[in-house]
User: Which sequence fits this backbone?
C-alpha cells in the first residue's frame, strides 16, 4: 500500500505530461493538413538529374 504513495503522483504527472504534449501539438498545427501526406505519396515526380 505504501507504493501507491509514489505511483499515484507519478501516474498523474505522466498523464499531465501527455496531455500537455497533445495540446502543444494541436497549437503548433500538427493536425492541420491530414490529406497532404496521403496525397504526396501518390504524386510521381520524375528526377531530371538522373544521368
Assistant:
Amino acid at each position: 500500500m505504501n507504493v501507491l504513495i509514489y505511483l499515484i503522483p507519478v501516474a498523474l504527472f505522466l498523464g499531465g505530461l501527455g496531455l500537455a504534449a497533445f495540446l502543444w501539438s494541436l497549437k503548433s498545427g500538427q493536425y492541420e493538413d491530414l490529406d497532404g501526406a496521403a496525397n504526396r505519396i501518390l504524386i510521381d515526380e520524375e528526377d531530371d538529374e538522373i544521368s
Remarks:
- Helices lie at 4-27, 36-40.
